[in-house]
Every structure is written in structure tokens, then in C-alpha cells.
Amino acid sequence: MQTVIVVYSRSGRSLRIAERIAARSRARVCRIECPRYDGLSGYLRGWRDAWRGDLPEITLAPEIGAADLLILGGPVWAGRFAPPVRRLMREAERLPPVVGVFVTRDRIGSTLPLEADLEALAAVGPTPGEDLPLLTLARHRPSGLPIERAVERFLARLAPLMSRRKAPAILPVRMA
């Protein structure tokens, strides 16, 4: 069974978490690329798009290809998934079932704004109607589990979902 981690990471923080998860789960990493948010002016466009709900053009490198399951990750901007992640989510019905989600953010806070995004992903997950495992990692953590232990707990929650899903490979998804 092939699991793919699809991640958007402008600063590299979310990508490092994806690589940690991949190393422990034998999943491969596929990056969402969005040149619109490169450079200093890209930061400003990113925040504006996050507040307005605008979704940019993205590409995937490498393509998702044949996969049975998907773990989705990226940063939280303005209380929701970053626009490149939300753009990919528009294609959720064409993606392999999402079994888990991880987010990086500046501070620990409410995940309430993420609820609509998470519900949309859970609806096309391996067990519709059940909450997806969510790993939230904040840069400014008052106290809590070290990142390694948090990743291990996340993977422990994913293990039953990853082991019971036996589905045929999904056709490659190409983003225009």
C-alpha cells in the first residue's frame, strides 16, 4: 500500500515535518509548489489571498501518481489552511482518501476556523463522518510534547487507518 504525504511549505517548516513523518511511515513526499508566494511580495500576496479566500494556481512535484492513501500538511494562514493547500482540497474527490492532516502555525490557538476544511476532507476520507487525526505544531508552544513525540502519537493514530485500507491505486492527479 502506497501512502503519499502532500505538503505545502513556504518557509520549510511544514516540509521538515512531512519528511519526519515520511521517514517513520515509509510514505513518499509530494510538494505543492506555488510561485505566486515566492519572495517578499509573495508573503503579502499570501496573506491577502488567505483573507479574501482567493486560491492560486499550483503544481505538484512530483505528481501524486499511484497512491492508496494521502496525508495532507501545510501552514495555517489567517486561521485556515494556506491557499495552496485549499486549492488542492478543491480536487478532494479526485485524490486518494485523506487519512490524516498536520498543520504548522505560529501559536497554539483555536482550530475552529479549520473545521470547515477538515470536515470537507473527512467527507472523502476512508471512513466518512469520522474525524481525521490532526497534528498541530506551533512555533511558540507554551508547553507540550516535543515534536518527535507529537509525530509519534500522530502516526500511532494513523496506523489503524493505514493498515485497514485496501484500495486500488488511484490515477495520477494533475493540477493545471
Topology at a glance:
Blueprint: E1 3-8, H1 13-25, E2 28-33, H2 39-52, E3 59-61, E4 69-77, E5 80-81, H3 83-89, E6 98-107, H4 115-123, E7 134-140, H5 147-164
Parallel strand pairs: 1-2, 1-4, 4-6, 6-7
Antiparallel strand pairs: 2-3, 4-5
Q: How would you explain this protein's 3D organization?
A:
The protein is α/β, with parallel strands linked by helices and 176 residues long. The chain has a single domain (3-164), classed as 3-Layer(aba) Sandwich (Rossmann fold), CATH 3.40.50. The protein has helices at residues 13-25, 39-52, 83-89, 115-123, 147-164, and strands spanning 3-8, 28-33, 59-61, 69-77, 80-81, 98-107, 134-140. α1 (13-25) crosses α5 (147-164). The longest helix is centred in the C-terminal third of the chain and has 18 residues, at 147-164. The radius of gyration is 15 Å and the shape is globular. The chain starts with a strand and ends in a 12-residue tail after the last helix.
